[in-house]
Automatic annotation (TrEMBL):
Transmembrane domains' residue ranges: 20-40, 52-77, 83-106, 147-169, 189-212
Protein name: D-methionine transport system permease protein
Biological classification of the source: Bacteria, Pseudomonadati, Pseudomonadota, Alphaproteobacteria, Rhodospirillales
Any single GO BP term: D-methionine transmembrane transport
First-listed, main subcellular location of the protein, grouped into a coarse class: membrane
Location within or outside the cell: Cell membrane
Record organism: Insolitispirillum peregrinum
Limits of the ABC transmembrane type-1 domain: 14-206
Membrane topology per record: Multi-pass membrane protein
Keyword vocabulary terms for this entry: Cell membrane, Membrane, Transmembrane, Transmembrane helix, Transport
Length: 223
């Protein structure tokens, strides 16, 4: 393949991958973050005690998370068609990516919030803070470094998932690697795709690490 054509294909499919990751990441986090907060604060004796609801949502989250992504993509094709009007292409791929992101984010946010010192919650309660204020001013504020790392891990995982949807006509870098690198026996295309994915993941991880360190230093100064 001519270098100019390869560059053109890499550029267009990279943009498709970025679109999939950003849209699925934003929607998945917008839904998954409050679910994670609820799971971390709705157990028996916690801020918003609702043990039964906590268990039910926890079971749904676990069931979705334990389903291998490629099976999830196929299993929710009717839902994908309902939302996107088709089951192939970048727009359609965003649907299963978002569905997979929601429980992933929820569990990571739950873990990040549970790491916050319980003494801070008790101190805030003693000062008359409402449960909602404790969540926003204490839990989310103190867990910011961990939440940043959780969201970084989510984006990195989404990049990997977005490459997988290429196997079922989802577009993006994975689709380029499969169609040209694998089916047409062009190892240079597969190598280029792998290198671009590595650079993309490295860039996201470095940015997330830097942001988490920044939040951590601010907390230490504040403390």
């Amino acid at each position: 393949m001519a270098p100019e054509m390869l560059l053109s294909l890499l550029t267009s499919t990279l943009w498709q991958t970025v679109q999939m990751v950003v849209v699925a990441g934003v929607i998945g986090t917008a839904i998954g973050l409050p679910i994670g907060v609820f799971l971390a604060t709705s157990g028996k004796g916690e801020l918003f005690p609702a043990p039964l609801t906590n268990r039910i949502i926890g079971l749904i989250v676990n069931a979705t998370r334990s389903t291998p992504f490629i099976i999830l993509v196929v299993a929710i094709i009717p839902f994908t068609r309902l939302v996107a009007g088709t089951s192939i292409g970048t727009g359609a791929a965003i649907v299963p990516l978002t569905v997979a992101t929601i429980p992933f984010v929820a569990r990571l946010i739950e873990a990040a919030i549970r790491e916050v010192d319980k003494g801070l919650i008790e101190a805030a309660r003693a000062m008359g803070a409402t449960p909602f204020q404790i969540v926003t001013k204490v839990l989310l504020a103190e867990a910011r470094p961990s939440i940043t790392m959780a969201l970084t891990l989510t984006i990195v995982s989404l990049i990997g998932y977005s490459a997988m949807v290429g196997a079922v006509g989802g577009g993006g870098l994975g689709d380029l690697g499969i169609r040209y690198g694998y089916q047409r026996f062009m190892p240079e295309v597969m190598l280029a795709v792998v290198l671009v994915l590595i650079v993309l993941v490295q860039a996201v991880q470095s940015a997330g690490d830097a942001l988490a360190r920044r939040f951590d230093k601010r907390h230490r100064k504040h403390g």
